[in-house]
Write the structure tokens for this entry.
Amino acid sequence: MSLVQRIMARWGSGVGEVDDVRIDASTNTLQTIDYGHHEIHAGSGFHAEAKAAGGSGTKATITLTTPNTTKWAHVIVSFYSNVEAQVSVGEGATVTAESGTTLPAYNRNRNSGTATTMISEGTTGGDAAGALTQGATVSNFGTALVDDRQIGSGREGGETRELGEWVLKQNTIYAFECESQAASSEVRVIIDYYEHTDKH
């Protein structure tokens, strides 16, 4: 005599919003996605990148203010350069007003109309929720979460990804910057993040 057990899981909070838990037919393994991937499906994942080209000292910079709510940004930041460069991440940064331009944060679910809750910081024409800022002048990085870290060697390029996820502090100015250290440079800062209210 065999015993067949059905495992059900809830996908919503309403009556009947449950479904069978299924396994992959080829490997008999349970298939799941990580939480960040889930947030993309839910329309809460965002992507933005700033780039710049020029001589030594050229900077790609993203600045933002987190909203004063408990919907926090969970961020992974990447830096790229074709020459030696220094990268920095600052919390509680000081940004010169109206020194940068608006940088869109694209929803990673292109079928979602949800906009980011982040607030641009240092944007010409004034700061507003729903976008970030690129190219603003950072006069002080505040608490240096990543402090002048070098990527590349000599005149060689490099890249780095801060693999650990940063959960940004609410109501705080952040600056992400990649500064070239050689001529004929191309530098880039990329941030991928999702916005989430803690369950507890």
About this structure: Residues 46-197 form one domain. The first strand starts at residue 8 and ends at 10. The mean pLDDT is 88.
